[in-house]
Design a protein that fits this description.
The complex is a heterodimer of chains A (about 140) and B (about 325).
Chain A (H helix, E strand, L loop, with lengths): L2 E4 L2 E4 L3 E2 L4 E5 L4 E5 L1 H7 L4 E4 L5 E2 L4 E7 L2 E6 L4 E6 L2 H4 L3 H4 L8 E5 L11 H9 L8
Chain B lengths: L1 E9 L1 H13 L4 E7 L3 E4 L16 E3 L7 E3 L3 E9 L9 H18 L4 E4 L3 E4 L2 E4 L1 E6 L2 E9 L4 H7 L5 H14 L14 H16 L1 E3 L4 H16 L1 H4 L8 E7 L2 E6 L11 E5 L4 E6 L10 E5 L8 H11 L9 E3 L1
Parallel strand pairs in B: 1-2, 1-12, 3-4
Antiparallel strand pairs in B: 2-6, 3-5, 6-11, 7-8, 8-9, 10-11, 13-14, 14-15, 15-16, 16-17
Helix pairs in contact in B: 1-6, 2-5, 3-4
Classes of the chains: A alpha+beta (about 140), B alpha+beta (about 325).
């Protein structure tokens, strides 16, 4: 698997991204969504994750769940419009999977996108690397 | 411009609706206030069962972190609502806590008190907590909220927290008495008023963050505050399932936890309660275990391996300390 580092964060080449630091991977029919290395790293030790029920409607850019670390609640945002098909039940017992393995076993939800061009509207790995590179200075973001 | 709203006494639900609503309206602000009547505030991800709804106080669930707290007019609230762009996007929550809470630490210094920020978000005088805080993202804003304790009723706090038995409640009240301090507890500060604390905090927020005193635009806020007030008290939201550990746990302050096994109420081990200090990995007190100490008095700083107890009890105690200091089992589907 090709990976690369921009600043300190791993970006995988086999998926796409949004500017709120979620990754999206295509399957045969569904999209899998997770948080990036950037999110798990800046959040710190993740202690809890709240995820939506299957069937929940997702609206691009709107929160669909939340994570808690160090008394801090961060939001999870839908990368595109669609419907939740499944949530990762393993996170109920092991929320730290989000820290240990955010790109594989720490996936969050599987979803059906509302439109076929959802994938095309996401950032390529290189575009996401550029986005990360712009975060280093105060005021960028 | 960063507005500073020194609101004084505000009705209980509005004290919480303010920072949620201001963030939703995409405004920055520093809000200083206190509630005119007591209530209970649950953390965003807390299990709804941890609130004892028979306690007689109204309750809400906030959208920032932390756990259940009892709040009243002897606690001065500070609410910091900021644009995410104020810090680098690569910043951690601890950086936001510093930005928002350093003025509080400085204000305590103005009073002649040596305070420290104990990460992530407790402010201590010595090793006792005087201010509890929490934070999170609400829409596009970074929100950090907390309070300074003028006085605090330990027994009332223990009453509003659901507990499987009275021993855990008594232990909670005793542990709060040991690990919390209030400003009026300190000799020479007994006449400190909420208004004076608010003024002092306001000066510090003006100096540190450039906040400017403003009149609150209540009429412009009214519709949002009303809607948010209802949302925070919505029964489904308030009683939602959340974090559920393999044992009962109450955080007293950062690094200090009460833990009790989740066993059937008729099981004699149900009454075991330990005060666990996660930094040292030590058990500082045990309640409900006559074999250790019939008075339940402190076993200060004892490693579990040094405590002489029957094997079956030791097994239970080991299970209570042999997990992560902030373990959370669970993700809820909400």
């Amino acid at each position: 698997m090709a990976t690369s580092k921009t600043t300190a964060w791993t970006v995988k080449d086999d998926r796409r991204y949004d500017t709120r630091h979620h990754w999206v991977k295509t399957g045969e029919r569904l999209l899998t969504v997770g948080i990036t290395d950037y999110t798990q790293d800046t959040a710190g030790e993740i202690l809890y994750v709240a995820l939506p029920e299957p069937g929940t409607t997702l609206v691009q850019g709107k929160p669909f769940g939340s994570i808690e670390s160090g008394k801090w609640v961060g939001q999870l945002y839908a990368p595109c419009d669609g419907t939740v098909i499944a949530a990762n039940d393993q996170l109920a017992q092991e929320p730290d999977l989000l820290n240990r393995d955010p790109y594989q076993t720490g996936w969050l939800i599987k979803m059906a996108a509302s439109s076929e061009d959802a994938w095309e509207n996401l950032l390529t790995p290189d575009a996401y690397r550029e986005h990360l590179a712009g975060l280093d200075e105060p005021g960028n973001g | 411009m960063l507005p500073l709203y020194q609101l004084g006494g505000v009705d209980w639900i509005t004290t919480q609706a303010l920072y949620h609503g201001i963030a939703e309206m995409d405004e920055e602000a520093i809000v200083l206030c206190w509630p005119t009547s007591p209530y209970v505030s649950l953390g965003c991800h807390q299990d709804g069962d941890e609130w004892d709804s028979s306690c007689g106080f109204p309750a809400l669930r906030r959208r920032v972190g932390g756990s259940l707290v009892y709040l009243d007019a002897d606690q001065v609230f500070f609410q910091v609502i900021l644009d995410a762009e104020r810090l680098s996007s690569a910043c951690r929550p601890v950086d936001w806590y510093h930005l928002a809470l350093d003025p509080v630490v400085a204000y305590l210094g103005d009073l002649g008190l040596v305070a420290t920020l104990r990460p992530p978000a407790d402010i201590l005088l010595g090793d006792r907590k005087v201010s509890g805080n929490a934070g999170g993202q609400i829409d596009s804003k970074m929100v950090i909220v907390g309070n300074l304790l003028l006085s605090f009723p330990h027994a009332v706090m223990a009453r509003v927290r659901n507990a499987p038995n009275q021993i855990l409640r008594q232990a909670f009240a005793a542990s709060l008495a040991e690990h919390l301090v209030t400003l009026r507890d300190i000799p020479g500060y007994g006449d400190l008023t909420a208004g004076r604390v608010m003024e002092g905090l306001g000066d510090r927020y003006a100096k540190h963050l450039g906040a400017i005193h403003c009149e609150a635009p209540w009429s412009r806020w009214a519709e949002t505050l009303e809607r948010v007030s209802l949302e925070l008290q919505d029964p489904a939201w308030l009683k939602a399932a959340g974090m559920r550990l393999p044992y009962h746990q109450i955080k007293v302050r950062e690094g200090v936890y009460l833990r009790s096994p989740r066993v059937h109420e008729n099981d004699p081990k149900a009454s075991l309660v330990i005060e666990f200090h996660s930094d040292e990995g030590t058990v500082h007190r045990v309640w409900g275990c006559d074999e250790i100490d019939p008075r339940g008095l402190p076993l200060t700083g004892r490693m579990l391996s040094e405590i002489s107890v029957p094997e079956d009890i030791k097994e239970v105690l080991t299970a209570l300390v042999d997990l992560r200091s902030d373990p959370v089992v669970g993700a809820s589907n909400r």
